[in-house]
UniProtKB/TrEMBL annotation:
One of its GO terms (molecular function) is nucleotide binding. The lineage of its organism: Bacteria, Pseudomonadati, Pseudomonadota, Alphaproteobacteria, Rhodobacterales. NAD(+) binds at residues 197, 236. Keywords: NAD, Nucleotide-binding, Oxidoreductase. This is Glutamate dehydrogenase. Belongs to the Glu/Leu/Phe/Val dehydrogenases family. Residues 190-477 form the Glutamate/phenylalanine/leucine/valine/L-tryptophan dehydrogenase C-terminal domain. The active site is at 109 (proton donor).
């Protein structure tokens, strides 16, 4: 749901304004700027599903922003607020994001207007399969042309249904599994994909904190240890980011904002306990050991070191930008800061780590999953021989544990094999993600610090990514 007030540009217009700010500092051939900015196509579909004895009509979209590389890539969102403007803005961000982290895809995005909480699992499967059918029959789900992934309101479950629907429609396509990413492990997924976007946010912050100059720009010092963090949205991205920052980097999560209000505790909130509470009670209301306010958005304005919006677009806008106290904002969500708010925050000296970089962990690991599906070989298997000696140590260690625990815990050969395979793949995925986030950060940062006229990370990120898209068009033609 876009929170952008009516007197501000729409989400797509906001993305365009930020794009324009960057291209004004670039020297692109006439016409190419416009070609890159515009969204190539948006398909709208309305379809009916018979549910509880009645036909219900649903509206969905799949937007393709840029095909300078194919397949195009981007998530599918399930939310009541999905509309064409939002899907096109998100597709554009996918183009720039993929270019920035060098995932070889064009940009796309999809959405279905639906409140998933209104339907049971069986109904959701019917609706998702029908939407997938409508997109797949027009090649808008296809391993070589358009590869969706999870976004708000969707996850592994929906991706598995989509993959299966595509496979049923294309029984001779040996690469069918690569038609969508974010699948469960037992349906062609990859270890570490569920956590990937949140993990990427953690790696991005770690890289930021490695640079004394960048910390200084945000008036911050020291390491992540002890930093006071406020997170908005404890869904897939927000939960994993908050959990890893708390458990592995020593951050204190002092505020958590959810759809039904916010929790605040200066001493720090237990992220897993809050998540469990949400799963059980549907929201944060009633969670013990914290102050609760029904005015969740007010907690965005709290005194903290790092603010992580990880829910909706447009939440930091002209109405609250001047009150934001955090010196560092990392955009885990797509488009949480409107163009107008971005101006105000930059004016105040707030450092913003932009969405197209901050949440690129998802598409990065999706790329690994797609490659794994196309190669038809277990990720990491090639390295197996070199790693064998090290694996033997793990087997020995497991055997020792098995002997020690005796009947209390029995290690089957299957478990042993799975354990090893998981460890293998996860390690590779994590190091690939870490590398990607470090390299992309350095490319943005170099642009930020080496040019007088580039005064923020977002403009730097746009310039780096637009240059790559432009180079791609120059090389292959339009
Ligand atoms: N899932 C991914 O891999 C991925 C990748 C890149 C970017 N993103 C972006 O991250 C953001 C979150 O996506 P997600 O996959 O975590 O979604 P999600 O559906 O898993 O979680 C969203 C969370 O936000 C909460 N929320 C809803 N309305 C709210 C409100 N008004 N205030 C506070 N919280 C509210 C929901 O209750 C939920 O917990 C989106 O902008 C999405 O586009 C997601």
């Amino acid at each position: 749901m876009s929170m952008t007030p009516a007197n501000e540009p729409t989400f797509r217009e906001s993305v365009d304004l930020m794009f324009n700010r960057a291209v004004a500092l670039m020297d692109l051939p006439p016409g190419l700027e416009e070609k890159i900015r515009v969204c190539n196509s948006t398909y709208t579909v309305r379809f009916g599903v018979r549910l509880r004895g009645q036909i219900r009509t649903f509206t969905g979209y799949r937007s393709v922003h840029s095909e300078h590389m194919e397949p195009v890539k981007g998530g599918i969102r399930f939310a009541t607020s999905v509309n064409q403007d939002e899907v096109e803005a998100l597709a554009a961000l996918m183009t720039y994001k993929c270019a920035l982290v060098e995932a070889p895809f064009g940009g796309s995005k999809g959405g279905l207007c639906i409140d998933p909480r209104e339907y049971d699992e069986h109904e959701m499967e019917q609706i998702t399969r029908r939407f997938a059918y409508e997109l797949a029959k027009r090649d808008m789900i296809h391993p070589a042309q358009n590869v969706p992934a999870p976004d708000m309101g969707t996850g592994e479950r929906e991706m598995a249904w989509i993959a299966d629907q595509y496979a049923r429609m294309n029984t001779t396509d040996i690469n069918a599994r690569a038609c969508v990413t974010g699948k469960p492990l037992n349906a062609g997924g990859i270890s570490g994909r569920v956590e990937a976007t949140g993990r990427g946010v953690q790696y991005a912050l770690r890289e930021f904190f490695r640079s004394p100059d960048d910390k200084k720009a945000a008036n911050l010092a020291g390491s992540l240890d002890g930093k006071r963090v406020v997170v908005q949205g404890l869904g897939n991205v927000g939960y994993h980011a908050a959990k890893f920052l708390q458990s592995e980097d020593g951050c204190k999560i002092i505020g958590i904002i959810e759809h039904d209000g916010a929790l605040f505790n200066e001493v720090g909130l237990d992220v897993d306990a809050v998540r469990d509470w949400i799963v059980k009670h549907g929201g944060v209301t009633g969670f013990p050991d914290a102050a609760h306010t029904a005015e969740g958005a007010s907690v965005l304005e709290s005194d903290c070191d790092i603010l992580i919006p990880a829910a909706l677009e447009g939440v930091i806008n002209l109405t609250n930008a001047k009150n934001i106290q955090a010196p560092l904002i990392i955009e885990a969500a797509n488009g949480p800061i409107t163009a107008g708010a971005d101006d105000i925050l930059r004016g105040k000296g707030t450092v913003i780590i932009p969405d197209m970089y901050a949440n690129a962990g998802g598409v990065t690991v999706s790329y690994f999953e797609w490659v794994k599906n196309l190669s038809h070989i277990r990720f990491g298997r090639m390295q197996r021989r070199q790693e064998e000696a090290r694996h033997q140590l793990v087997i020995d260690e497991l055997q020792r544990l098995d002997d020690m625990l005796g009947d209390a815990w029995s290690m089957t050969p299957d478990f042993k094999e799975k354990y090893l395979r998981g460890a293998d793949e996860l390690e590779l995925v994590r190091s690939g993600l870490d590398d990607t986030m470090r390299i992309a950060y350095q490319s943005m940062r170099e642009m930020w610090h080496s040019r007088e006229d580039v005064q923020d990370l977002r403009t730097a990120a746009y310039i780096v990514s637009i240059s790559k898209v432009a180079a791609s068009y120059r090389a292959k033609g339009l």
